[in-house]
Amino acid sequence: MSWYVLYTKPRMEKRVAKGLQQMGVEVYCSFITEIKQWSDRKKKIKTPLFKSYVFIKMEEKNRNGVFEVPGVIRYLFWLGKPAIVRDKEIKVIREWLEEDKVDDAKVEHLNEGDKITIKNGAFKQQEAIIRDIGKRKMRLVLPHLGFTVEVKTKEVV
Question: Cβ neighbours of residue 3 under 8 Å, at least 6 residues apart?
Fold first, then answer.
């Protein structure tokens, strides 16, 4: 059995995961807790790490059954075939989130479009391309894994 990536309607990740689990499909949908600021309050909200994506583990011959679940749009494809995620990569994501190994990083002399190699953490030795740099977060594209991650950053002094 292989891990596949499903693309879902926006903000439907939890419902799709629940529906797939009820069908007996092994599902992994990673969530992180973010603090959202409104004008009158702050609130902790669980949001998906990979927005509009759900990982499923199943045999290839059973792949079409997932479209019975409301909110599933399509499979993510890579080179004309459904993208397959290795068990090792799912394990790294799980460990990274469970052990809360998201560290603050200091950004110095980096620009959007720069290619970097991650030196520490769950994605150690992975090549990444900087997509956005903000005051508190930086978005990295990990082309070999096929997704984008956000990392916290400290303001450059």
Answer: 28, 55, 56, 57, 84, 85, 86, 87, 89, 90
